[in-house]
Amino acid sequence: MSLNSELSDLFKTFAAIMEIRGESVFKSIAFSKVSRILKDMTIDVRKAVEGGTLDQIEGIGASSRKIIEDFVKTGKSKDFEEVSATVPAGLIPLLEVPGLGPKTISVLWKQRQITSMEELKAALAAGKLEGLPKLGEKKIKSIADGIALLEKSGGRIGLPAALLVGQLMLNHVRSIPGVKRAELAGSLRRGKETIGDIDIICSNKPSTNGADITKAFTEVAGVEKILGQGDTKASILTADGIQVDLRVVPDVNFGAALLYFTGSKEHNVRLRGLSQDKQMTLNEWGLYKIAEYEKASKKTGEAPAAKPVASKTEDDIYEALGLRCIEPELREDRGEIDAARANKLPKLITLADIKADLHTHTTASDGQNSIEEMAEAAKAKGYAFLAITDHSKSQVIANGLSAERLLKHVEAIHKAGEKIKGIKLLAGCEVDILVDGRMDFEDAVLKELDIVVASPHVSLKQDSAKATDRILRAIDNKYVHIIGHPTGRLIGSREGLPLEFDRVFKAAAANGTALEINAGYPRLDLNDVNARAAIQAGCVLSINTDAHSIDGLDWMHLGVAVARRGWAEAGNVINCFSADALTKFLLRKRK
DNA sequence: GCCGTTTTCGGCCCGACTGTTTTCAGTCG
């Protein structure tokens, strides 16, 4: 694990300990923020310490700086060790249980000596939680249910699965009589790579009441359990263990509700702070002048009786706050609010900007469709280019091509290209980057190819220096156009190469080698944060599906979502280049 | 714990819901 990740985890744990100890919530919020800053940081924190730039980062104060400096110097933090000795480590995972928070955990610990999940389960089974303050029969059952839910769903689900379920449920909501507008919200709308639960916001026509809509929502096929259903809100659990929440609001409040439930939480907090500065208050019903809002009567589940400054659309609210409208993918409190104020938001890339897929496979290696079938499918998407890039010889398990087979394949691709009009086929190869950074083919073979994607597939546990040197050598190769899935990570199962990204980005920018955002799930590699840092360093990106079948070409939108979260514009991505510009890009390095 | 063009002290975002309570604490998003 990288130093940044270790320190990020340390601060996350520190924040959790403070919650359980019952310290001021603002302290734990502050450390949670530091944890997030470290996780998002693309330079090695050691360099920030050595360069003395830690002070300049907003959110890192004297206490955090001391902990970071100690940890970088000695591999541990005395402050952290002292505090963590006061709370059993086994209590921290209990914060993940839905319905169980720090206050209750503290009571369980101090009054029933529970210090771990196992002990909590044993105590529940033995009925030992009775008689505690604020813990009635229902609360005890909800803790047991929460543990069961956590163990069943195993936490977060992947973006593609969430999109499928989300779209189905959204269509269902839109078909309910009385629904006027409905949209996906939450982290799904922001395009995050993993999703906790699915949020849907809808507005109702004046003639319909919310309870009819929430009831119809819970009656769709595939609902395993109804978690709750009221006039304005319902929650269900699908058979796959995915939670879907619906909120119903009057149409005039739709924009405020959508903004609120799209989040992120951190983005919302910043917006509300900004509202305060302007003598306004922002909530899920709308943006109000504080003076009027305080006088207005309020009833739970109903909009406050004051005229909002803005509430109908998200654009209205941003505008009233003096901001350009911020796209959902940017709402992470990563500088988007300042950019919106300065009118410096990027014009984000869209799926429609994509004119090429530059990394795909056929039956020649481990794909399922022929050259012609892949070409026709890509043409049907309106692409101008398709690169066929089957595996190189080291990928024995994927039926990788020998030099001889590859050269024959190149001929076959060119021949197919002559037959199929309306799309240009590029004959290429996904060449393995060997453990020391050499290519899996000699230059004499590579120079016969229209396009070379060089990817790491094996030895993905190298140390940082070796891994970085390996990728740098590939970037330097004059025949390599794109570094495919640069880290080799797999979401949820493999960390990938611990690259020194600043060196990688500098070299790629200097050489004109594109870095891939692999759109295949669970790769999505580069990730959002690294894609953004790469652009800032002057790199060009390439978004490709790595499709192994014609269906695989459909996942381009996942890569575009990552790119959007990485603040990418069409001009940063070679797949959006004009035919001329792409051709020039492919030839330039070889001069 | 962090921050500062009113501030180096005193704020720090907001409402819904649930359960355990007779007015509020805890949790969630």
Short description:
With 591 residues, the protein is α/β, with parallel strands linked by helices. It has helices spanning 3-21, 25-40, 45-51, 62-74, 78-84, 102-112, 117-125, 137-153, 159-175, 186-189, 210-218, 254-262, 265-277, 290-295, 314-320, 336-341, 371-380, 403-419, 443-446, 464-476, 501-511, 528-536, 556-565, 579-588, and strands at residues 157-158, 179-185, 194-195, 198-204, 223-229, 233-238, 243-250, 280-283, 286-289, 356-357, 385-391, 424-432, 451-455, 482-483, 514-518, 541-544. The protein has a seven-stranded parallel β-sheet with strand order 10-11-12-13-14-15-16. A five-stranded mixed β-sheet has the order 2-4-7-6-5, sandwiched between helices.
Description:
The chain is an alpha/beta fold. Helices cover 43% and strands 14% of the residues. It contains 24 helices and 16 strands. The strands form four sheets. A seven-stranded parallel beta sheet has the order 10-11-12-13-14-15-16. A five-stranded mixed beta sheet has the order 2-4-7-6-5, with helices on both faces. It has a two-stranded antiparallel sheet with strand order 1-3. Helix 1 (3-21) packs across helix 6 (102-112). The longest helix has 19 residues, at 3-21. The radius of gyration is 26 Å and the shape is globular. The two termini are 40 Å apart. 43% of the residues are buried. It binds one DNA strand of 29 nucleotides through helix 2, helix 4, helix 6, helix 8 and helix 13.
How are the elements arranged and paired?
Blueprint: H1 3-21, H2 25-40, H3 45-51, H4 62-74, H5 78-84, H6 102-112, H7 117-125, H8 137-153, E1 157-158, H9 159-175, E2 179-185, H10 186-189, E3 194-195, E4 198-204, H11 210-218, E5 223-229, E6 233-238, E7 243-250, H12 254-262, H13 265-277, E8 280-283, E9 286-289, H14 290-295, H15 314-320, H16 336-341, E10 356-357, H17 371-380, E11 385-391, H18 403-419, E12 424-432, H19 443-446, E13 451-455, H20 464-476, E14 482-483, H21 501-511, E15 514-518, H22 528-536, E16 541-544, H23 556-565, H24 579-588
Parallel strand pairs: 4-7, 10-11, 11-12, 12-13, 13-14, 14-15, 15-16
Antiparallel strand pairs: 1-3, 2-4, 5-6, 6-7, 8-9
Helix pairs in contact: 1-2, 1-6, 12-15, 20-21, 21-22, 22-23
The protein binds one DNA strand of 29 nucleotides through helix 2, helix 4, helix 6, helix 8 and helix 13.
